[in-house]
Design goal:
Blueprint (H helix, E strand, L loop, with lengths): L13 E6 L2 E6 L5 E2 L3 H6 L11 H13 L8 H35 L12
Antiparallel strand pairs: 1-2, 2-3
Helix pairs in contact: 2-3
């Protein structure tokens, strides 16, 4: 552990769980599990913004990119699998948000409208 890092800071909404020798994290509200550990992501220097459920695919992609000098026609399989994983995460979040909006609309529809009668002299 580095002295300047806060050891208690974990990704929001995650729980650590023992799976054999590796610690796997679960992200609430998501069907995908975190496969890459925090230590692996730190070692691979994955930026914080990219430490999601697809980080385990980003690590080999970045290694391949570095080895192939970022040539766009190289590492196609790795890039495709990473982009597909990210797409599935976005679609999952969109469906979750759609369900939340539908539930809010149902709740709003159940609330009665309060009608204020007009005064007789108006």
């Amino acid at each position: 552990m580095h002295p300047h890092r806060n050891p208690g800071r974990e990704e929001i909404g995650t729980q650590r769980r023992e799976c054999g020798r590796k610690k796997e994290m679960e992200v609430e509200g998501s069907s995908k599990k975190m496969i890459a550990t925090q230590e692996e992501m730190v070692e691979a220097r994955v930026p914080l913004a990219y430490r999601d459920q697809c980080a385990h695919l980003l690590i080999p992609l970045n290694k391949c990119r570095q080895a192939e000098f970022y040539l766009p026609w190289k590492c196609e399989n790795e890039r495709h699998s990473y982009e597909k994983c990210e797409y599935e995460l976005v679609m999952e979040r969109m469906l979750q948000m759609q369900k939340i909006r539908q539930e809010q609309q149902k709740a709003d529809a159940k609330q009665p409208l309060i009608l204020v009668p007009k005064p007789a002299n108006a």
